[in-house]
Every structure is written in C-alpha cells, then in structure tokens.
Amino acid sequence: MSLPGAGVLGKLRVAGRPGLRRIDATLPVWVGAALFLVFLMLLPLGSIFVTSLRDEHGITLRNYLDVFTEEAFFKAIWNTVVVSFWVGVIALGIGALLGWLVTRTDLPWKRAIRALVMASFVTPPFLGAFAWTLLAGPNAGLLNKLYRSLTGSEEHLLNIFTIEGLIFVMALYSFPYVFSMIANVCELISSDLEDAANILGAGKMRVALSITLPLAAPALVGGFIIAFLHSLSLFGAPAILGLPSGIHTITTQIWALFQYPPRLDLAAAFSVPLLLTTMCLIALQKKILGRRGYSTVGGKGGQRRLVQLGVLRFPVLLLVVGILSLSVFLPYWILLKAALSKAWAVPLTWDNFTLGNFGFAFFSYGDTQRAILNTFKLGILTATVGTLIAALIAYITNRQIFRGARFLNFFALAPLVVPGIVLAVGLFIAYTRPPLALYGTIWILFVAYLTKEMPIGFSQAETTFKSIHPELEEASRIVGANRLRALRDVTAPLARSGLIAAWCFIFVGVIRELSASILLFTPKSKVVSVVIFDLKEEGQIGVIAVLGILLLVVSFLVIFTVQRLVGRDVLASRE
Q1: pLDDT > 90: what percent of the chain?
Q2: pLDDT score of 317
Q3: Residue 187, domain member (yes or no)
Q4: Is residue 17 in a domain?
Q5: Does any domain span residue 5?
Q6: pLDDT tens figures, 9-36
Q7: 338 lies in the same domain as 361
Q8: N or C, which end of the chain has less CB nearby within 10 Å?
Q9: Domain ends where: 350, 378, 397?
C-alpha cells in the first residue's frame, strides 16, 4: 500500500546518508521567519505605548487625561460606542435571520442569496458609504428626488449624513460576518430536539425561539462582538458620512490628530484604549465560542430537516431580497449609473450616456494611473510575501520545529485585535526615523498591509497544513531531504489550493484597505482607496464610480477563483 503523495516523493533525490538528520541545517530559516514576525508585530505596538506616555517634558499620563476629559475626544468615544452597539444589534438581527433562513428553511434561491451576502462582504464599506451618499443625500440623493417627484414635497425623506444613517450603512456591511457564524452553527444543529418540540405541539416560531435560538446563543453573542469590533475599527464610512455633519468617531478623531500640526502623542493615547477594548472583546468572543460544542446535538450524524415556510415562502424571499438590495443592488446600480452618466443626478438617457468617465479615470486624471499601479503592485507583492511568511510560520507552529513555536500563533494572529488606523499610528511612529525611515515611500504601506493581513494568510495556511500528515514529510527526510526541501517538494504541492486561497484573500484585503492607508500615504504612494476618499472632496463622482467598479470587479474575480479552487464558502473560510 503506497502513501498518498508518493508521486511527489519520487521527485526527491537521495542526498546524504539515510535516516533523519540530528541537526537541521535549515533551522536559521525557521528562526529568521519567527524573529521577523515578532519584530513586525512588536515594533509598531511598542511605539504606540511608548509615545502615549511621553510629551516634550518626558514621561507623563497627561495624554490619557486629555483623551478622557476633553469634550471633543469624549464625544468621539461616546459616538463610537453608540454607533458600534447599534451596528452590532442590527447586524445580528439581519445576519441571524438570513443565516437561519438559508440553512434551516425551504427558502428558494439559497445559492443566489449566499452569493449576494458574499457581495456585501466583498464590498468595501467606504465604497458602500459613498454609494449611499448618492442615494440618500438630502439634496441630490436619487431616493429623495424620487420621493419629491411622487409626493410633491420639498422636504427630503432620507438624510444619510446623520448618526442613524451611519449606523444603517455600517450595519449593511457588517452583517455578513454574523451570517457566516450563524449559518455555520445552524448547519451543525440536529433536528432531534426540534422534532420533539413539534411532537409536543410547539409551533414553528416557538421551536425557533425555545430550541434553535438557545443552541445558537454562543454564535449569536460572538456574532454581535464581531460586528461591534468591525464597526469600531472602520474609518471610511464614519469619515464619509459622519464628518460632513460634524460627527466624529475614535478613528476619525485619530485621523484628525494627524492633520497639521500632528499630535502623535495624543493619537497614540487615543489608540491605546481602542486597542485594549478590541483585545478584551476578542478574548471574550473566543471564550464564548469555546463553549459552542453543546450546540451540536446528536453529533455529525444528526439529521437536519428543513422548516417548511408554506405560504410565507415567497413573502420571506421578498423580504430577504429587499434587505440585500440595500447592500448590493441599490449601491451597485448607482455606482454603475454614475460611471456611465455625464451627469449622475439626472436620468440615464442616451443623451446622458457616456464612456468618458472610464477614459478620464484611466488615462487623463493625474492620480489614478499611479494609484492603480501602486494598488496592484502592493497587492501582488504583499500577497506573495505574506503567503510565504504565513506558510513558514504556520509550518513552524504546526510541526513544532523548535521549543516555544506555539507562541508564534499569538504574534501571527495579533493584528486581529489591532484596528487598521491604530496599526497605522504605530507604523508612522516607528518608521519615520532612522534607521527605518520608510515614511514617504511605498514600503511603509507594504509593511502595513503585510502586518494587517498576516492573520488571514496564517489561518488559511495553518488549516491547510493540519490536513497534511507529517508522515509524508518524514518519508522525504528519510531519503535525505531537509525540512525546507520537504516543505517545498512535498507539503507545498499538496497544500497548493490552500496557499493559493491565502494569496487571494490577502490580495483582496490589500486592494480594499483604507484605514491604515489614509495615515501612511504620500502624494507618490497613493492607492485607489485613498484616491476615492480624496476625490469625494473634489466632487469627481464619475471617476469615483469607475474606480469603485474596478475594485469590485477585481475582488469578485479573485473570490470566484478561490471558490473554484477551495470549493467552500468564502465567508466560512475567513472565520
């Protein structure tokens, strides 16, 4: 009987004496990768803590006192808590409802609904926020213009530039995280207890509330925390929708502290509470989800029967489509309309139709060509280097190559608890002085993206390596290969699809990143997300729409490639 992957082993040449070597000559590679990861994570975070405790006179706590006592700063903190709480509540309601309907009922068009949820997930929140300014702006928003034309009123129906509008838009692009968690749990819950409740006379709603809901409770709490954290760390949507009406959140306040003259000490002090809050909530979520084993009744063999919606089947479908139209159909339609119109606010007639926005965006407007080149250059470079480093670290931790290797998990996943704008503050402080003066170059963005996207690359690589038995590598080492060659010639080919998926996830994360980019760019290192943010101030709606469509098309092509290669739900892959 031959081992799986024996054909791969055939490629190895016999080198040296048979048997496993006592001393691994490739140990410097593994130690070097581990030290690089630790340095990558500790330098910016350490810089934030040190700077937050200093001013021109030396060590002080004055910065923290200012953060929590100055009215503007306290208001930003309060706005952040309020917005994030309601985003979590709304995202939980939408995500839990859709997750249950897709997995536990006979709702039609489930594959299409999953695809639309994925579209919501892929859409950058700042792009969704911009689209909603065109839809629900109080003056020129198309929904308000439609309302005025139908009613004859001179007042607006919707005003997206309010705290309610901000909560609404952020919830639209946070619920996919909740959907993923709830859908995964609902697919594991057996129908045995639900059937018993039905036999005792409980109706569908009572079964859902008294049986299914308690079993899914850990995932519900975890989903709320994830949506809360996602909202907590966003910069683009609060900046686009909140700043015009004077609504600051923590992230926009940190950005404001970087305007001239920059206050790095206050920005660092503002970043620390956000970082600590994120760390505590992530720890709480992990603890809660660590107990979710009781939600799987009857084990994997338990049967899961679908709830029959009956006469409610198509009304519920219309409700689901209506919800998804808010995050997908309406925003995508207005972006496409703006990209193809000479004047976006008037009907798209033949006289108003144009392709000139595409030509102007790609060939005439000064910043876009360089930004597009920078974005895809950084995306490809970060995805390639990130996948390589993530694969090495995942291999070290999975195979326990040296003592203490398991602690690298903490460093690889640390950016999960570091909001993008906080990471940018640390990188700005760390890399604006010799010997690592990277600010003003594209390389500081590369470091930021590499750090921020490391968790998704590591998680994907670790999951892949866990599915490959170490005996295959041991067999290769018996015939003379060292660990690095075994990884290259045996493990990597077997893990090809998982590593390609990691590359694609990192690439998509890079091209849609704004929170870190907004603090670290210079005129020569602009990326597409920053250009979109800047163009809003100039009123270049057509160019913004074109660049937004470019990001969406590229993201969907990459995600489609991942699904074809990996063969599973993209949202589930990122959890």
Answers
A1: 26
A2: 92
A3: yes
A4: no
A5: no
A6: 444 443 344 444 455 677 788 888 888 8
A7: no
A8: N
A9: 350
Distances (CA, A) of 489 to 6, 24, 495: 11, 17, 11
CA-atom Rg of the chain in angstroms = 26
For residue 68, give both structure tokens. Answer: 């929590």
* Mean pLDDT score, 476-493: 74
| Residue 301: predicted pLDDT | 43
Helix, strand or coil, per DSSP, at residue 357: helix
Looking up residue 391, the CATH number of its domain turns out to be 1.10.3720.10
One domain, residues 433 and 520: yes
Q: How many CB atoms lie within 10 A of CB 564?
A: 9
Sequence-distant (6+) residues with CB within 8 A of 287 are none
Identify the domain containing residue 308 by its residue range.
Answer: 70-350
Q: Are residues 405 and 450 located together in one domain of the fold?
A: yes
Distance CA 386, CA 2 (A): 34
**Helix/strand/coil for 341:** strand
Unique residue bearing structure tokens 């819950």 = 189
Give the Cα separation of 111 and 95 in Å (integer).
16
What's the confidence (pLDDT) of residue 189? 67
Q: How sure is the predictor about 127, in pLDDT bands with cuts at 50, 70 and 90?
A: very high
pLDDT level of residue 51 (50, 70, 90 thresholds) = confident
Q: pLDDT per residue over 427-442, tens digit each?
A: 888 888 777 888 888 9
Residue 49 CB: number of other CB atoms within 10 A? 14
Tell me which residue has tokens 């690359």: 457
Query: Residue 463 CA to chain centroid, in angstroms?
Result: 18
Do 279 and 247 share a structural domain? yes
Closest listed residue to residue 220, CA positions, set 193, 197, 189, 186: 186
Mark whether 461 and 504 lie in a shared domain.
yes
Q: Look at residues 311, 326, 350 and tell me which one is the last residue of a structural domain.
A: 350
Residue 399 domain flag: yes
Buried b (16+ CB within 10 A) or exposed e, 147-179: beeeeeeeebbbebbbbebbbbbbbbbbbbbbb
For residues 331 and 365, state if they share a domain: no
The tens digit of pLDDT for each residue in 54-77 reads 877 778 888 888 888 888 888 998
Asked whether 132 and 169 are in contact (CB, 8 A), the reply is: yes
Query: Same structural domain for residues 438 and 553?
Result: yes
Three-state SS letters, 83-150: HHHHHHHHHHHHHHHHHHHHHHECCCCHHHHHHHHHHHHHCCHHHHHHHHHHHHCCCCCHHHHHHHHH
Same domain, 480 and 345: no
Q: How many domains does the chain have?
A: 2
| pLDDT of amino acid 297 | 41
* Section 279-283 average pLDDT: 79
